[in-house]
Amino acid sequence: MNIPKKAKAVILAAGKGTRMKSDKPKVLHEIFNKPLLGYVVDAAQNSNLIDFSYIIVGHCAEEVQDFCQKYYPQTTTCKLQSPQLGTGHAVSFVIEDLKGYKGEVVVLCGDTPLIKAKTLENFITTHRKNNADLTVMSAIFENPTNYGRIIRDNNGIKAIVEEKDATFEQKAVKEINAGIYCINWEKIAPAFKELKNDNAQGEYYITDIVKWAVEKGLKTNSFILENNYEIFGINSKAHLAQATKILNDETIQKHLENGVQIVDPQSTWISPETQISTDTIILPNVYITGKNKIGKNCKIGPFAHIRGDVEIGDYVKIGNFVELKKSSIKSHTNVCHLSYVGDSEIGSGCNIGAGTITANYNPITKVKSKTIIKNGANTGSNSVIVAPVVMEENANLAAGSVLTKNLDKNALGLTRSALRIIQNWVKNK
Ligand code: UD1
Ligand code: MG
Question: How confident is the model at residue 3 (pLDDT cuts 50, 70, 90)?
Fold first, then answer.
């Protein structure tokens, strides 16, 4: 039998998310500028054991589909579930596509952004080692209210019972269903056609596949999660803030352990995809989103905003009220005060004067253009560089100038009008 080495993911993302009180679908709400669904797809993709994800969409399906098309065109496909009749009903929408598929399917939720690739890897590996047909991810919660409970006997797990359907005794169980499953598709797929909705919520529950599998004599297992927060589900804006904080605390802790100095972890926000090298100091009130790479011995902040796709060399200073986006800045360059640098390449040993702005966006054509500032070039205070433009090596731009043409090596650009001095002006007035 030819069993694929990698599993397929099915990510449930059709729900409305009423408590978000938003016009936007829940799974497109963002943490560090990345939608919740993006975190889940990335975790699946980065796990090394999943190569493709089916996204079940329903509420605001088009928007969610557009997001997947734009960022994951090769590795995801969306399936429309309309109306939404439950988690088991949702999974049934991949039956057609997976006809004859002999590998595993990992079911995930689009609103649990803190799940880690490594955990999914361990989860699938455990499923394989146990020769299980169905593995349920579970967790031990002191307060299990609202979660499905894992019901066991001596032979392992035999059912999952939803809070609303649970007996008093079952409600006391602290092992909860995390909502993540690893399924041997060939054996379990028929279950999705046989699910019934005779329960308190009148829904087709995915959780009922456990009982189905046990009745068929298949092997069920559970995988108990180590870090409970990984299955933290987002249902409200308050949850969104909490999840952001959890992710930030974890990221900052990792940087501190790696030798980055962070003066005030409470006021520092760093996206998980930002790399920072040793002995760099991050001063208070710094906000960093997206994917970035920051070298060693840099000084960032206070009050700096790094917006993603930024690469910074070693010994670079990024000072207060500086915003950086989609740019590279080589070693020993300073951007110390009040500047905007976007879509730019800045060389090493440059001094970007206070209030320098790279004007990268033409609001009429909507085109963004590039600024290139080569090694040793400097810009004076309050200068504007209207991209596309190149400042060659050691070129200088005088304070208050607006640069609209390329500057040759060692040249000075100066657009300032001549200074007039009127003596005794005050007296004569
Ligand atoms: C589900 C589990 C519960 C578990 C909990 C963990 C069931 C029946 N129960 O409950 O045992 O403890 O997750 O968080 O599965 N969705 C769809 N289509 C639908 C219904 C839901 O795509 O028709 C999506 C939702 O958008 C959500 C996910 O599936 O992302 C889970 O659905 P939700 O209604 O939140 O299930 P829970 O009640 O939390
Ligand atoms: Mg839920």
Answer: low
Please state the pTM of the whole predicted model: 0.94
Alpha-carbon span 223 to 144, nearest angstrom: 17
Query: DSSP 3-state assignment of 147?
Result: coil
Verify whether ligand 1 is closer than 6 Å to residue 207 (CB atom). yes
pLDDT digits (tens, 9 = 90+) for 296-328: 999 999 999 999 999 999 999 999 999 999 999
Q: Whole-angstrom Cα distance, residue 201 to residue 5?
A: 37
Task: State pLDDT tens for residues 166-184.
Answer: 999 999 999 999 999 999 9
Is the Cβ atom of 111 under 6 angstroms away from ligand 1? Answer: yes
The pLDDT of residue 155 = 79
Tokens of 113: 């952004």
Identify whether the C-beta of residue 335 lies closer than 8 Å to the C-beta of residue 313. Answer: no
Percent of the chain clearing pLDDT 90 (strictly above): 97
* Catalytic site positions: 337
Give the per-residue pLDDT at 17: 87
Among 36, 109, 209, 234, say which to mutate for ligand 1: greatest number of ligand atoms within 8 Å of CB.
109
C-alpha 145/C-alpha 87 separation (Å) is: 19
User: Parallel, antiparallel, or unpaired for β 378-379 and 396-397?
Assistant: parallel
**H or E stretch covering 31:** strand 30-31
Which residues are bridge partners to 52 per DSSP? 8
Q: Is 84 in the pocket of ligand 1 (CB under 6 A)?
A: yes
Q: Is the CB of 333 under 6 A from ligand 1?
A: no
From the CA of 177, the nearest ligand is: 1
Question: Residue 341 burial (CB < 10 Å; 0-12/13-18/19+)?
Answer: buried
294-324 burial: b if 16+ Cβ within 10 Å, else e:
bbbbbbbbbebbbbbbbbbbbbbbbbbbbbb
The alpha carbon of 66 and the centre of ligand 2 are apart by a number of angstroms equal to 23
